[in-house]
Amino acid sequence: MQTASDYLDILNPEQRRAVEHGAGSATPGPLLVIAGAGSGKTNTLAHRVAHLIVKGADPRRILLMTFSRRAASEMSRRVERIAARVMGTSSGAVTDALSWAGTFHGIGARLLREHATQIGLDPAFTIHDREDSADLMNLVRHELGLSDAKSRFPTKGTCLAIYSRVVNAQGDLEAVLKDHFPWCAMWPEQLRTLFGAYVAAKQNQNVLDYDDLLLYWAGMMAEPAIAAEVSARFDHVLVDEYQDTNKLQSSVLLALRPGGQGLTVVGDDAQSIYSFRAATVRNILDFPQSFSPPADIVTLDRNYRSTQPILAAANAVIDLASERFTKNLWTERLSDAKPYLVTVRDEADQARYVVHKVLEAREGGMRLKNQAVLFRTSSHSGPLEIELTRRNIPFVKFGGLKFLDAAHIKDLLAILRWVENPRDRVAGFRVLQLLPGVGPASAGKVLDAMATGPDPVWALGEIPAPSRAAEGWAGLVEMFTRLSRREAGWPLELGYARLWYEPLMEAVYEDALIRQADILQLERIAAGYPSREKFLTELTLDPPDATSDQSGVPLLDEDYLILSTIHSAKGQEWKAVHVLNVVDGCIPSDLGTGSTHELEEERRLLYVAMTRARDELNVITPQRFFVTQQHKHGDRHLYAQRSRFIPRAMVPLFEDILWPPVTPAYIEGLSPAPVRMDITAQMRGMWSK
Fold first, then answer.
1. Would you state the pLDDT for residue 222?
2. Strands 613-626 and 637-639
C-alpha cells in the first residue's frame, strides 16, 4: 500500500501543484487549472478530489460538476482507485459518500426538488427533453395563431433555439435575433409573447425544460437566505470543462462561491468550441479576476498524447489567437515525422487519399479503430463515405439516433411521464394518440377535462370513451389508474406499461421485435433506479446513446474506421487523424467569420482537431469544390484557398505534399518526340491577310 506522501509521485510538478493547492487549508482560495490537450486533466482532477479526502475533507461536502454523468462516474471510480492506494479497504465507503458528483443540470434538478416548496415549485415536477419542449412550444405557437402567419414564422425548433439562447446567454432577445437568427429579426414581439405563453404552459403543467434547471437554480441562488443554505452544504466545489460553460452556469457557480473559497475550475480556453450551445470562452478567461485577490493559475502544458512535431504545428495555430492563456504544449515523445499538409485537386481526390492512407496504415498493423477522419460539419464526409463503401471499408459515423429519440422509447417514457405528472400535456397528448381512433381533437378534449377536475386520475375514468376508440379505452384507463396508484411498485410499473403498449407497437411497426429489445433494455436500466421519478429525471438528463432504431444496417465488422465531426471528437484521441477540407469556407466555416469571436472559435476547432492525433496527422486542402444544386452533369465549381489559420510562414512545420504526385510527361533519358507541326504558326496565321 502506498503512503500518503508517495501516491502523488506519479504526477508531474505542475499536476502536483494543482492537486495540493490549499489542501491543508480550511478555506483554500480559488484555483484555475489550464489543462492543455492531452495533459492528464482528468487524472489531475481525480487526484485533487482524492487528495482532499485523504487530507480529511468530508466527501459528502464535495460538489463535483462535469458535463456528463458518465464523466462523473468515471471520475468517482478514479478517485476510489487513488484513495485505495492510501486508505485501503475503507476507500470504497469514502467514495460512495461522494454523492454530489454529476452534471450542472443533474445537480440543479436535485437541488430544485429539495428546495421546491421554498421557491414556489411543486416538487413532483417532470422534466422535458428537447423534443418534448419543442412539441410544447409548437402547441403554444399554434394556440396563439402564429402557425397561420402569412409570413414565414420560425418553426418550433427555431423558436426553442432562440428561447434557449436568450436564457443561457442571459442575453437580450433583439440582440440574439440580430446576431444569431437574423432571418427571425422581424418577429421580436410575437416571439416575446410566445415565450411568455410557453413559460406559463410549463408552469400550468408542472414541467421544466433543460434550461429551467439552470434558470431556476440561478434564480434560487439570488435569494440570500437560500443561497447561504445551499452554499453551506459544500466545503469544496470543483468544475470540469469550465471553458464549455455558459453565462447562466457561471452565475450559479459564482453565487455558490462568491469569494472563491474552496473553488477549483479546470479547462482549456484553446478548446472552447461550443458557442452554438451559448457557451462562452469569457467565463474561463475572466475567471481569475472574478475574485480579490485573483485566483491562482496552474498551467498543465506537458502533453502525453501527441508527438512533438504535431504539437509544434498545433501550437503555431493557436499562437495566433487574439486572446488566450499563454501555454505551449510540449512532450517527451520526440519524432522526425512532421504532420502532412496535403493538397489535392478536389473532394474526390481527398476521399481517395484518405482511403489510400487508411489502407496503408492498416497494412502496417494499425487497426481501423485507431484511425479517425474529422470534419467541420457532417455533410463534409459525403464523398468519403461513398468511396469507403465502394472500397468495402467499414466505418462508423458519429451522429445516429439517440436512444430517447426512438419513437417506441418516447412512447413508453411518455406513459410514465404522464402518470407521474397528469398535467404534462405533451406526454398525455402522445399517449392518448397511441390509441387507434384518437386524434388531436379528441386527445385535446380529454386533457382539458382532466385539467379542470380536482383529481385527474378520477377525471380520466369518468370521461366517456371516444366513439372511435371504445375498444381500447378501458385498457388505457385501467393502466393509467394502476400506475398512478403505484400498485405494482417500481420497476414493475414499467413492465405493466410495456404490456399495455406492446400490442399497439406491433400494430404500427413492422420491426416490432427489434424495437422490443430496446424496451427490454429500458427495463433493465430502470432496475437500477429507486423510483419512477428518479428514473425519469436521470434518463432525461443523461440518455443512453444506442438504439435499435438506427439509420442503416447494423455494423457486423469487428474493425471499422471512425468518422466524426470535430465537435464530437473532443476528448478523444487516435493514432492517426485525417482532417478534411482545411480551407477557407470550411475551416473557418463561411458562417463563422461574421465576428472576431466567431473566427477565433473556428481557429480553436482546428486546434482541437489537430490535437486528437497521437502519431500521424494529415491536414487536407482540396483546391476545387463543385457547386451544389446545379443541373445534372453540371461542372460549376469554385477554387478554395488553404485555411487562413495555416499561413505561409507556418507551412515549414508540415510535410507539404501534392497528391496524387505529378507524373512527368516523358521518361528521363529518352529523347522527346520530333516536331510534326507548328501549331503556334497556325494560330498567328489566323489573323494575317
1. 93
2. antiparallel
Going by pLDDT thresholds of 50, 70 and 90, the confidence category of residue 401 is very low
Q: What is the CA radius of gyration of the chain?
A: 29
Cβ atoms of 624 and 637 closer than 8 Å: yes
CA–CA dist 396, 563 (Å, integer): 6
Span between the terminal Cα atoms of the chain, in Å: 102
Provide the residue type at 636 as one letter.
R
d(CA 83, CA 79): 6
Written in H, E and C, the secondary structure of 613-672 is EEEEEEEEEEEEEECCCCCCCCCCEEECCECCCCCHHHHHHCEEEECCCCCCCCCCCCCC
pTM confidence score:
0.82
What per-residue confidence (pLDDT) applies to 72? 84
| Alpha-carbon gap, residue 349 to 370, rounded angstroms | 23
Question: Which DSSP letter does residue 237 get?
Answer: E
Same domain, 391 and 486: no
Cα–Cα distance, 94 to 109 (Å, whole number)? 24
pLDDT tens digits for range 493-520? 998 999 999 988 887 776 677 677 778 8
| pLDDT for the residue 549 | 37
Residues 505 and 522 in one domain: yes
**Pairing label, strands 207-208, 126-127:** parallel
Phi, psi of 486 (to 5 degrees): 55, 40
Summarize pLDDT for 127-148 with one digit per residue, the tens: 998 889 999 999 999 889 887 7
**Do 283 and 314 belong together in one domain?**
no
**How many independent structural domains does the chain possess?**
4
3-state SS of 497-529 is HHHHHHHHHHHHCCCHHHHHHHHHHHHHHHCCC
The Cα–Cα gap between 534 and 523 comes to: 14
> How confident is the model at residue 93, as a pLDDT?
63
* Sign for the pseudo-dihedral over CA of 76, 570, 67, 9: positive
Confidence of residue 73 (pLDDT cuts 50, 70, 90): confident
Q: Which domain holds residue 628?
A: 308-400+552-659
Q: Specify whether 413 is located in the same domain as 530.
A: yes
Residue 669 lies in a domain: no
DSSP 465: P
Dig out the grid coordinates for 14 from the structure.
Answer: 505542475
Same domain, 106 and 224: yes
For 195-221, the pLDDT digits (tens) are 999 999 999 999 999 999 999 999 999
